Amino acid sequence: MDHTQKDERLRERLLPEIDAFKHSRQTLQLATRDSDGIPNASYSPFALTEAGFYILVSDIARHGKNLKDSSQVSVMLLEDESEAKTVFARRRLTFDVTAEAIARDSAEFEAGVNALAQRFGDMPKGLAQLADFNLYRLTPKQGLYVKGFGQAFALSGSELLDIQWQKDGHRGDSSKLESSVSAAAPARP
Predict the structure, then answer these.
(1) Contact (Cβ atoms closer than 8 angstroms) between residue 101 and residue 89
(2) d(CA 158, CA 160)
(3) How far is it between the farthest Cα atoms of the chain?
(4) How would DSSP label each residue in 48-107?
């Protein structure tokens, strides 16, 4: 089997797996920072659409204030401990994202809240009526999917469909990549 065929098999196997993993999670972990650069870890329920991840966050929450101070955020979708083969290598999907507050009077605000309501019932619609709750769209710029020990795959490209096996670990040097796969598939956030 030549290199191109191996790349295609890797792409065909991983892209559906990554997509299924994204849709199997209900919450994402947020890493935000305040205006002084002080980090904060938190979480939020999310809805995933072709536009990105949507979250509803209160200004009263520390991460709500942080999202107003900095649009650069890291998010992680994480396999539950009870599902993992070992807690030392839980499956996870991380993204560097840009957070953007969505105007309340926009069609996108209504669509984002409706996407959340489809997943979680009426509660998001009630929260969206509260003055301190804001809807944010989190747009992924690059990502990393970790399946287990020695199985980390960088996601890049305009639609995050380029997959690179990180042979030397999570912060791999592109000159040491085992495999680079560019996919021509429908857009996914």
Answers:
(1) no
(2) 6
(3) 59
(4) EETTEEEEEEETTSHHHHHHHH--EEEEEEE--TTT-S-GGG--EEEEEEEEEEPPTTSH
Highest-confidence segment of 29-33, 160-164, 181-185: 29-33
Assign residue 119 a region (left: φ > 0; alpha: ψ between -120 and 50; beta: otherwise): alpha
Residue 186 DSSP SS3: coil
Tell me how far apart the alpha carbons of residues 184 and 103 are, in angstroms, rounded to a whole number: 33
pLDDT value at residue 116:
98
Element at 9 (helix H, strand E): helix 3-24
Task: Tell me how far the alpha carbon of residue 128 is from its chain's centroid.
Answer: 22
pLDDT tens digits along 38-67: 999 999 999 999 899 999 999 999 999 999
Helix H or strand E segment including 17: helix 3-24
Amino acid, res. 133: F
Q: What is the pTM of this model?
A: 0.82
φ/ψ of residue 88, rounded to 5: -80, -15
pLDDT band at residue 174, thresholds of 50, 70 and 90? very low
